[in-house]
Amino acid sequence: MHAEMLVLRFSQEVVDKPIIYRLVKDYDLEFNLLRAAIYPRQEGVIVMELRGHPKNFRRGLKYLRDSGVAVKRVAREVGRNDELCYQCGTCTAVCPSGALYIKRPEMEVIFDPSKCSACELCCPVCPARAMEVRLNRSAV
């Protein structure tokens, strides 16, 4: 099974087409939507994890590109500088994926990178600037 985090940009011409449906039905791929902003008859952006057999994955990416969808692999990741973090918990309030949470009863802020969708919402709200955007070498 192959999986990657992708950013899909739908132009005005294709935003109303059932493109994601076709990925599932025709290419036997699974997806997990992490963030989406779709504006009918305008444009759309989806951040998703796409997974499936490597051959189907490659065919599905080709289908997306041939359909007019701009595809980019998530080339950045979010990390935490533990030396800067003072456990205030502000980041946990904005984390949509549950990658940042408070462990109870210790009241410790936990960062689970495997759940992180790289949405970067935690970075600007962190008063200590402990949440950082880094280049993900494996996705480039």
Summed up, the helix count is 3
Order of helices and strands: EHEEHEEEEHE
End-to-end separation in angstroms reads 20 Å
User: What value does the Rg take, in angstroms?
Assistant: 17 Å
Name the beta content range.
Answer: 35-45%
CATH architecture descriptor of the largest domain = 2-Layer Sandwich
Spans of at least 5 consecutive residues whose pLDDT stays below 50 are: none
Mean pLDDT across all amino acids: 89
CATH topology of the largest domain: Alpha-Beta Plaits
Q: CATH superfamily of the largest domain, please?
A: ACT domain
Please count the beta strands (DSSP E, at least 2 residues each). Answer: 8
Structural overview:
Helix 1 (19-27) runs antiparallel to helix 2 (54-66). The protein has helices at residues 19-27, 54-66, 122-125; strands spanning 2-10, 30-39, 43-52, 69-73, 76-80, 100-103, 108-111, 131-135. It has 2 domains: 2-73, 2-Layer Sandwich (Alpha-Beta Plaits); 78-133, Alpha-Beta Plaits, CATH 3.30.70. The mean pLDDT is 89. The protein is an alpha+beta fold. The strands form 3 sheets. Strands 2-3-1-4 form a 4-stranded antiparallel sheet. The protein has a two-stranded antiparallel ribbon with strand order 5-8. A two-stranded antiparallel sheet has the order 6-7.
Compact overview of the structure:
The chain is α+β, with helices and mostly antiparallel strands. The chain contains three helices and eight strands, in the order βαββαββββαβ. The model has no long low-confidence stretch (mean pLDDT 89).
